Fold this protein.
Amino acid sequence: MSYTTKNYTTDGGDKTVISGTLDIKEGAVLLGLPQAANQTDSTATTVAGLVTDFNALLAKLKAAGLMNNE
C-alpha cells in the first residue's frame, strides 16, 4: 500500500505545496498576505460617479498586488 501526500514542504522549507483543501477556521490569523486599502461605500448618484468609485477600488486592488496591472 502506498500513500501520496497532497500537502508537503520542499526546497529546504522555503516552499509549501497544498493540493487539498485549506480550511481556515474562524479566529485564525494569516500573516504576510497583501491587503487592499479600504474603499468606502459608494454614494454615487450617477453612472459616472459609480465609474469613478469603481475605478478607485480597482486602483487599490492593483496597488496591493491583488490584481495585475495588465
